[in-house]
Amino acid sequence: MILEAGLVKAIAAGGGLVSSVAVIAGVAGGGQYAATQADPTKLSSAVCTYTGKPSTPEKTRTASTGLRLTSEQAANARIIISTADELGLPRRAAIIGIAAALQESSLHNDTVGDHGRAFGIFQQHPQHGWGTRAQVSDPRHATRTFFSRLIKIDNWTAKTLATVAQAIQRSAFPDAYAKHEARAKRLVTALGSPPTGRTSGVKLSSADTKAVRASLELATALGVTRAAFVADVQMGIEAGALPSARKNTSLGSDTAHLAEQIVTTVAGQLCKELSQKIGQVLDPDTLAAIRTSGRGAVALVAALKMIGVPYAWGGGGAMGPSYGIGHGAGTKGFDCSGLTEYAWAKAGVKIGGHTSTQWRAGVRVPRSQLKPGDLVFFATNPNNPATIHHVVLNIDGKRYVHAPTTGSRVQVGQWTARQEAQFAGAVRPG
């Protein structure tokens, strides 16, 4: 059912509120939508741009000057700090990032080093899997990639700054990072994270938040501009499509301003969630593999978005998480096969809701040829499919996303000797 009010369309089935701009883009932009959904960093980056550009308060400008930073250096330092915050990383991560950038480029993005082979604030090498030259020269991309490698270092928060920075950067001068630690701490303290007070006054009902959130994901994936989406939300408010928005009387009767605040707030929440989930598991090499994995990529991304959803025995299916049965009753979530059924349903493939049907839902794949999204089965007796007890979605042959057991949540797991011993086989649906 579609309810129309001017350019506003409230799509009841999807719980969304999407402008005619987005609908038009959908007709000609299906390829872009699929490409964005298949590359989690593109979706995350697109959503994060909707948070708007935070203003730089006078206190920050004064602090930057006192710490002998140019406007470019301060801006790049703030990118490192805000990216760490978006990814849910502790203050220590921002300190390590800034110290590394101070050593590599003095926080100047136009620095070119290593005989013309290293670029950007972290002097990253395209030939070593950091991205293209254009990507490593983008401070935000470079910072996210830096942090994606940082979080893979075992117990990194307990190690010295120089040890962690060297493990990421592989510098010929591994001890040089330490001398920047004190200054990096001062910068993080002085520059801090972008202020969020400007959006704290907006309160929406859960239903209205869900509607804006669903539409925002679609609009960003289709490349709809933030201004167009804000205008659409404003029309939605005026048409009564977002009833709880009118209760934000503290923001006055200016619906344009209210729409701006709503989009910034919802985009900020979604940006943080996507960044946390994606940044924990996806590196450039994994992303490169995902881009060539077709429907498997769509299934894997769908499963990754469910990280943190509770395990519920007998729960979940093609429509998403649901209340379980038996000892899963009362918990809304997924069991292992419920998660895989949901993920592949998002890719347009029906694989059934039980491991026995999923085992026969595609072609067999050797362990050495696993691709993102492939179903991997574990059994007490690997030679007997009747003993299969668990199914997961492959990420990169070393890690997988799954719903483990009662009391846990959807999470990323790693292959161990036990998993190798219980590996019964893999299936590629579709």
Automatic annotation (TrEMBL):
Keywords: Hydrolase, Protease, Thiol protease. PROSITE patterns: NLPC_P60. Residues 293-430 form the NlpC/P60 domain. It comes from the Bacteria. It holds the Pfam family NLPC_P60. Belongs to the peptidase C40 family. This is C40 family peptidase. It comes from Nonomuraea marmarensis.
